[in-house]
Specification:
Layout lengths: L13 E2 L6 E2 L2 H5 L23 E2 L2 E2 L13 H4 L6 H8 L12 H10 L1 H40 L2
Antiparallel strand pairs: 1-2, 3-4
Length: about 160
């Protein structure tokens, strides 16, 4: 997502538990995201300070160190947005998506774990059923043996 100039820069960002995904609302996060994202227990991220370095061709005073050839910071300061996307930003006063959503992939990943969970549940229930069956059969055989013993002993 991107925002045009003039829109409040302080946004709440919701980061999914044990995942890398970030969302602009808890509701969006809890819709499942890519493979079962969840923002059920949010924690606020605090940023101690923001330093404005300027732009690649117009560094802020005192920020000339950002242009050092010792690291690639200056190259990373360029825009990730294409001219058409920048034009869309200029034409709106709200947030706009910067990349299309791949909902089919999200859905596939979200439901992909369900068969594994179902097989785990089936295995556990089958194990419990076999244990109960073995115990019941053992009890029946003991009673049958006692009954046969009484019958034969009574003759």
């Amino acid at each position: 997502m991107a925002r045009p100039a003039g829109v409040e820069a302080r946004a709440e960002v919701w980061i999914s538990a044990r995942k890398h995904a970030s969302f602009l609302s808890a509701a969006e996060c809890n819709r499942g995201g890519c493979g079962g994202d969840s923002c059920a227990e949010p924690r606020k991220l605090t940023v101690p300070s923001v330093i404005n370095l300027g732009q690649p061709d117009a560094l802020m005073p005192g920020m000339q160190w950002a242009a050092s050839a010792q690291w690639p910071l200056l190259a990373k300061m360029g825009s990730d947005f294409s001219p058409p996307l920048l034009a869309r930003l200029d034409a709106t006063d709200g947030l706009i998506p910067t990349a299309p959503s791949v909902r089919g992939v999200h859905t596939t990943l979200a439901v992909g774990n369900k068969p594994v969970t179902a097989l785990d549940t089936a295995a556990a229930k089958t194990g419990s059923a076999l244990d109960a069956s073995a115990a019941g059969t053992g009890n029946f055989l003991k009673r049958a043996a006692r009954g046969v013993g009484r019958f034969l002993g009574g003759q």
